[in-house]
Design goal:
Largest sheet: 5 strands, mixed, barrel
Bound molecules: iron/sulfur cluster
Strand content: 15-25%
Shape: rod-shaped
Length: about 500
Amino acid sequence: MKITVAKSAGLCFGVNRAINIVEELLDEGKSVFTLGPIIHNPQKVREFEERGVKIAETLQDVDENSVLVIRAHGIPESTENEIKSMNLDYRDATCPFVKKIHNIVLQHSKLCDIILIAGNQNHPEVQGIIGYCHSEYHTFPNSNDLERILKENPHLREKSVCVVAQTTFDVAEWKKSLEILKKLCTNLKIYGTICNATSVRQSEAEVLASQSDLMLVIGGKHSSNTNKLFDICKSKCEETYLIETAGELPKSALKKACRAGVTAGASTPASIIKEVLQTMTEEIKEEMKKVEEGEENFKELLEESLKTYNTDGRVKGVVVEITPTEVRVDVGRKQTGIVPLDELSSDPNAKTEDLVKIGDVLDLKIMKTNDQEGTILLSKRIIDSQKGWDEIVKACEDKAVVTGVVTDVVKGGVIAVSNGVRVFIPKSLATARKDDDINELLKKSRSSSERECKDTPFFLTSKTFFKNFQRFFAYPDFKTIQPPTSSYPRFVLPSYRA
Ligand code: SF4
């Protein structure tokens, strides 16, 4: 994830100045009071409280021997006069840009101009500005409210009107408001008092938000400029979050983001921005670690699965449990290997305990894995059949003897199991004499001999092989055995005469 931090993020000149005034007083060992929280940042306010700074709600709360600090938002003229009349020791940390607005409205109200203030009436800064208005004044939080005010007060169109803005007022709303005013009011004096730091911060945040898929606005939830930043960013980036500290980072959203933008309100100390960035970096590192571990796990799984498939789906299993219906084997994996009885041998009459014993190592073919149940279905019969098939083919080529056990009497002959392969022996080749009862052959070992092969050879050319293959070996078990290729050599079916 790429993180871009807005150049304008963080403490503005005015707030920084106010903080420095408090710091200096604390360093001098003074008892400090602030009239309301020094900035709209709970973390910084708490830090100051821990260092002994007290917040006064009214002037009466302030101790005589303390120093009162007026915050950057400023105060009404009447409050300042009261402080003076009470002979309180005080430092004025009102931002010079705010102080400039006080002077503008004071001067114009002395001229009996009507004052229009673009801003939130309940905000301390606007309350301070109102305190310097000695003539008619109106406040409007947005251009819609301005239209309403102009409608309800038609005299504003003719009178001399002075318009100012709260330093953190939304730049776009300000422009809209001016368009309305310019159209309707004939005697207008406009003062662009939005703080440059604010307009730069807002326009930079807007651009950054439109280039990001996640936007973080760091700042106090009660901070006017931080909330405005949030609204601006939200309009450009749906995944915009307002957080006060690193602890509020939206971790799940962070995982999905590729480009994260970070901005911060005018009252957000650099230490908080740094902490958020550090935590984000750690989160990213953690995610990267997980991804890398995931890749490792994937590699392991891949290697494990390749191990299986590299051996053509074969595994070795050690018999660990024998039941009448199945054998359980350890195949060196998390899953339990299961070999059902009918996959243990081609002989339908075989019993598990006769075929294997605990500790036997079996060559097995993987038939199916069930990850939910953690089992692997395995077959010994298929491996035996594959091996047996090759041995039978070789024996036939060599005209060698193979032995088998007759397991079934079927129409037209018998089925014998030889080297794990079910072999069909036609009745005409299964008995010595035509009238012999083939049922007598059941469970008896039969063998082919070199002599018999020679005597009763079945030579099948590659051309006729498949036809006869179908005829002699068209049993379900053989579906799993690779059929020979068309270029397969001549094949001799051994006879199983006693
Ligand atoms: S935002 Fe601007 S006006 Fe407000 S305190 Fe900061 S520097 Fe001063």
